[in-house]
Amino acid sequence: MPKSRPLVRNPLFVFVPPIVLLALGFSLISQPGAFAPQHELVAQAINERRANQQPAQILPLAKFHQTRLATNQGGSDFVLVNKQRPLQPLNYKPVNLREIKSSKQLDNSRGLELSDQAATALERLATEMSAAGAGKLFVNSALRSFDYQQDLFKSKTAQYGLAGALIRSAKAGHSEHQTGLAVDVSVPAQGCAIMQCFGDTVGGKWLAANSWKFGFIIRYEEDTTSTTGYTYEPWHLRFVGLQLATEYSKSGMKTLEDFWGYPAAEFYLEEIDSSTSN
Ligand SMILES: [Zn+2]
Q: Which structural domain range is residue 189 located in?
């Protein structure tokens, strides 16, 4: 661990060869506590902005080497969760949850919850979306607890078999929905709810073009399954904060894995182990 500390402080961190990034990624995963001081800076910045009622995130991305550390923290807007990066602990639960407010522009009749900053951002997004004539948003799914996700994965397995379940749903502890930062939406009046054709609707197109302005990204874009492990989900919005969403959309990258320089995670590690041993 001591060997990686100078790297973390080096402003050229972003540009070091991928192999070093990979090694650092593994060391971060194995010893996240070693970076607690930097994470406190991130947390402090987040809390200050919340106190001022500003959108949650933001450190300058020039401090990329610091913000990247927050990809390991469930409570960070930058957290990167995928099939190879489970939440820690597996049954992680966010602390700042609240119910998304229904309005003329936003239907949360299911009473679902998000982290406070993500809920606020979604409410603003829905207001703008409606004003733009792109439709009234319905919240299909938002926070999902560890237990809920476990049951969901079981039912998908019963419905589609294990292979089918693996590309449609996450195992508990591996879902972005467990962070309180991910939300599945639809526009019932336009059809295609939680279907890929949602991407072709007026609402789906508006979200793809504009959700970044509110701190969201379309997390599972077309043709990224080999990196994310999931098929195209134009309905799944992930809150990452305004600055990161802005940088991400400008970067032209299509996955958070690529953006942060983490390995592709099409499969769970145990799937890879079993396929190579069979
Ligand atoms: Zn989703």
A: 2-277
C-alpha 132/C-alpha 140 separation (Å) is 21
- Ligand 1 midpoint to CA 184 (Å): 5
pTM of the predicted model over 0.90: no
Distance of CA 218 from the midpoint of ligand 1 (Å): 10
- CA of 206 from ligand 1 middle (Å) equals 18
- Is 176 an active-site residue? no
Q: Dihedrals φ, ψ of 256, to 5°?
A: -70, -30
- Ligand 1 (ion): residues with CB under 5 Å are 184, 236
Cα–Cα dist 208/237, whole Å: 9
User: What is the Cα–Cα distance from 275 to 278, expressed in whole angstroms?
Assistant: 5
What's the token pair of residue 263? 């390995």
Compute, in angstroms, the gap from residue 40 CA to the centroid of ligand 1: 29
**What is residue 117's predicted lDDT score, i.e. its pLDDT?**
97
* Total domains present in the chain: 1
We report the CATH number of the domain holding residue 267 as 3.30.1380.10
Catalytic residue among 221, 233, 257, 266: 233
Please give the average pLDDT of every successive group of 10 residues along the chain, which has 278 residues: 46 47 46 43 65 60 69 93 94 96 98 98 98 98 97 95 87 96 98 98 98 98 96 97 94 94 90 65
